[in-house]
Automatic annotation (TrEMBL):
<comment type="function">
    <text>Catalyzes the reversible conversion of 3-phosphohydroxypyruvate to phosphoserine and of 3-hydroxy-2-oxo-4-phosphonooxybutanoate to phosphohydroxythreonine.</text>
</comment>
<feature type="binding site">
    <location>
        <position position="102"/>
    </location>
    <ligand>
        <name>pyridoxal 5'-phosphate</name>
    </ligand>
</feature>
<keyword id="KW-0028">Amino-acid biosynthesis</keyword>
<feature type="binding site">
    <location>
        <position position="187"/>
    </location>
    <ligand>
        <name>pyridoxal 5'-phosphate</name>
    </ligand>
</feature>
<dbReference type="InterPro" id="IPR000192">
    <property type="entry name" value="Aminotrans_V_dom"/>
</dbReference>
<keyword id="KW-0663">Pyridoxal phosphate</keyword>
<keyword id="KW-0963">Cytoplasm</keyword>
<feature type="binding site">
    <location>
        <position position="42"/>
    </location>
    <ligand>
        <name>L-glutamate</name>
    </ligand>
</feature>
<feature type="binding site">
    <location>
        <position position="210"/>
    </location>
    <ligand>
        <name>pyridoxal 5'-phosphate</name>
    </ligand>
</feature>
<keyword id="KW-0718">Serine biosynthesis</keyword>
<dbReference type="GO" id="GO:0004648">
    <property type="term" value="F:O-phospho-L-serine:2-oxoglutarate aminotransferase activity"/>
</dbReference>
<dbReference type="InterPro" id="IPR015422">
    <property type="entry name" value="PyrdxlP-dep_Trfase_small"/>
</dbReference>
<comment type="similarity">
    <text>Belongs to the class-V pyridoxal-phosphate-dependent aminotransferase family. SerC subfamily.</text>
</comment>
<comment type="subunit">
    <text>Homodimer.</text>
</comment>
<keyword id="KW-0032">Aminotransferase</keyword>
<keyword id="KW-0664">Pyridoxine biosynthesis</keyword>
<feature type="domain" description="Aminotransferase class V">
    <location>
        <begin position="6"/>
        <end position="356"/>
    </location>
</feature>
Length: 375
């Protein structure tokens, strides 16, 4: 079976050179006679990989010295609880800006975690419209949507809503909000490293690896050192961010193979020219797709407002669900997979993460033009 054009939302396509490198090194890593998976996490072979992955993250993103870069397990979902557990104090809660389903989940977990600690999580703003099954999210927030409490421990947002296809900081009209002195915490799981980011604007950034930088099982956390130092000490050690921070993310056994794959992906990314080059490539890919959608207004419809349209997850509808089913089936027959929208919203979703090749988009766009013509 030849490799397919994989538009999955996550776990998602990985760059072929990163996979080939893993294949070539699989049985005999660095001339050691064993797989990297079989090495001790305390041995020099693995440690070199771990250090290289951390160094590449710092280099690619230009992470300032005042920040720690951590590898954490449990998925981004664990961080939904772990972040409030670390950062709230009794009587000093956290603010949440909700622009889609993942923001809702983060807020919901924060409510449970803060209640345990004598604090609370507060909705500082939402762009949701309607209720229940009719709930819609079609735009990133503006300053007018947001009321931050000046004493909040932090303001949380989701930079890219994977299900709704709503993203911050694609268009200058929808920048990351200014929370004043309140630290900004961003879930960047589905758009981490899609372009350069000014890390100093954030108190904490976290991202599950399985969309843009590797396989599932690892979360990258970039956090201001003073927030780590001030974090709670009365929660279990394994949940304190200072534990990975003080132990180079080697307090206990990390997901070594996942971190190894991250190293391979980051090395590939650097070889392509880094985040500036990646931004151009990603904007071109998504631009082509939105171009086809907009050129066929009677057939394709993107529900997301123009300024908030995601460069990573392009969502759209066809005239009827039967058309969408046929679309997914015909595309699959042509080797293009992973196009079905999330079950909660339906429609089509094309995930165009870093590893998705521009040529795949050319092929998908040609198919879409033809499909619309046939109606
Ligand atoms: N946040 C966002 C924006 C996501 O897209 C996802 C996963 N799709 C998560 C959080 C949850 O990640 P995990 O499955 O790693 O817990």
């Amino acid at each position: 079976m030849p490799r397919v054009k994989n538009f999955n939302a996550g776990p998602a396509a990985l760059p072929l050179p990163a996979l080939e490198r893993a294949r070539d090194e699989f049985l005999d890593f660095a001339g050691s006679g064993m797989s990297v998976m079989e090495h001790s996490h305390r041995g020099k072979e693995y440690e070199a990989v771990h250090d290289e992955a951390l160094a590449l993250l710092r280099e690619l993103l230009g992470v300032p010295d005042a920040y720690d870069v951590l590898f954490v397990q449990g998925g981004a979902s664990q961080l939904f609880a772990q972040i409030p557990m670390n950062l709230v104090e009794k009587g000093r809660g956290a603010d949440y800006l909700v622009t889609g389903a993942w923001g809702e989940k983060a807020f919901s977990e924060a409510k449970a975690a803060t209640a345990m600690l004598g604090a609370s999580a507060r909705l500082a703003g939402t762009t949701g419209e309607g209720e229940g099954k009719e709930k819609r999210y079609v735009r990133a927030a503006t300053a007018a949507d947001l009321q931050v409490s000046p004493d909040a421990a932090y303001l949380h947002l989701t930079s890219n809503e994977t299900i709704h296809g709503v993203q911050f900081a694609v268009d200058p009209a929808r920048p990351f909000p200014d929370a004043g002195k309140v630290p900004l915490v961003a879930d960047m799981s589905s758009d981490f490293l899609w372009k350069p980011v000014d890390v100093s604007r954030f108190g904490l950034i976290y991202a599950g690896a399985q969309k843009n930088i590797g396989p599932s099982g690892v979360v990258v956390v970039i956090v201001r050192k003073d927030l780590v130092a001030a974090g709670r000490k009365d929660i279990p050690k394994i949940f304190q961010l200072r534990t990975p921070a003080e132990n180079k993310s080697l307090y206990n056994t990390p997901p070594t193979f996942g971190i190894y794959m991250i190293r391979n992906v980051l090395a590939w990314l650097k070889g392509l020219g880094g985040l500036g080059a990646m931004e151009q490539r990603n904007r071109a890919k998504a631009g082509k797709l939105y171009g086809v959608i907009d050129a066929n207004p009677g057939f394709y419809r993107c529900p997301v407002e123009r300024e908030s349209r995601s460069v990573m997850n392009v969502v759209f509808r066809l005239p009827a669900e039967a058309d969408e089913e046929r679309f997914v089936k015909e595309a699959k027959a042509k080797g293009m997979v992973g196009l079905k929208g999330h079950r909660s919203v339906g429609g089509i979703r094309v995930s165009t993460y870093n590893a998705v090749e521009p040529a795949w988009l050319d092929e998908l766009c040609a198919f879409m033009q033809d499909f619309a013509k046939r109606g």
